[in-house]
Design goal:
Largest sheet: 3 strands, antiparallel
Strand order of the largest sheet: 1-3-2
CATH class: Mainly Alpha
Structural class: alpha+beta
Strand content: 5-15%
Helix content: 40-55%
Mean pLDDT: 84
Length: about 80
Amino acid sequence: MDEEYYTVAEVAERFKVTKAAVYKWMRQGDLPFVIVGKERRITGSALREFVKPGVVSEEPEENKEDRLALQLAAA
């Protein structure tokens, strides 16, 4: 098992967003996660796919701020 796993708090801190934003992305199906015991973890490969540069999609206005914040943090 060489995959890296991140907590919700680690993802939020890394991308300078709230934990609520990370939970929202997971709830909407935008950010895949796995269950380890009773906790949610996000894999490194899921994060890389989530922030793939150059991908444009139609998304609700409310998600654009979260997505912009994530893209700026990843830059």
